[in-house]
Amino acid sequence: MSIPTVEPAPAIRAEPAALQAYRLLERLIVTLELAPGVVATEAALIDRSGLGRTPVREAIQRLAWEGLIEVRPRAGLVIAPIHAGDWLKVLDARRGVEIVLARAAARFVTREGAEQFHAAALHMQKAVISGNVVAFLEADKALDEAMAAASDNPFAARLAAPLQTHSRRFWFRYQAETGLAEAAEHHVHIIRSILDGDVEGAGREAERLMGLLRARAEATVR
User: Angle at CA 86, nearest 5°, toward 33 and 40?
Assistant: First the structure.
């Protein structure tokens, strides 16, 4: 599962408070710490995040647009329910755009982008070794973000991002105890193709990963 080594890039600046709030709440929803169907309040999420009202409100609005939170005026915030059959719908919508992103990333990846892929893949491998599902999903998100940046296609990236988040949530709910190594292996094949500039290979490997996920979703539904 090794990938080519590149020199590390300079440290990036601290993320804005709104993005920090979004990442925290998204992780709580994906890992079911905010349980499906539960009713929450803006004040409770502010307390839990330790951030201010404005960044948390912005995060809630983004999560609502992505279909992870339903905002009910005067009634609270409802965390989206989760139904196994919807996983297939998410993957059917995600398949095509993942292939587009992988092919574009192989065509346009920069040295800085290559370092992002390398770091995320190493974190994923460490998560597999330790059996840490949450760390695996965080590394998976980092890979998705590296793919979005490398592809130079913000339209496809914006379409893919919420589908990727929903997919991680389904994985945590139904597959958290199995399949980490196999999933990581598929991700590494995609990364190798991208770093080699193999456009066709990257597309094929992305399609294979989507096939693996769909097979897991079908088994879950059955």
Answer: 30
* Spatial separation of the C-alpha atoms in residues 6 and 22, rounded to whole Å: 30
Burial of 91 per CB tally in 10 Å (0-12, 13-18, 19+): buried
Q: Over the stretch 8-46, which tens digit does the pLDDT of each residue have?
A: 334 334 788 899 999 999 999 999 999 999 999 999 999
Give CA separation, 201 vs 33, 72, 91, 114, in Å.
Answer: 37, 45, 20, 17
Tokens at 93, concatenated: 């919508």
CA distance 165 to 50: 23
Residue 2 burial by CB count (10 A; 0-12/13-18/19+): exposed, middle or buried? exposed
Distance CA 48, CA 43 (A): 9
Strand pairing of 76-79 and 39-40?
antiparallel
Domains of the chain: 17-79 (1.10.10.10), 84-221 (1.20.120.530)
pTM as predicted: 0.88
Please choose, from the candidates 58, 59, 62, 64, the residue with its C-alpha nearest in 3D space to the C-alpha of residue 78: 64
> Residue 26 class from Cβ within 10 Å (0-12 exposed, 13-18 middle, 19+ buried)?
buried
- What is the residue type of 90? V
**Per the structure block, which two tokens stand in for 176?**
């958290």
Separation of alpha carbons 187 and 133, rounded Å:
15
Q: Using 50, 70 and 90 to split pLDDT, how confident is the model at 69?
A: very high
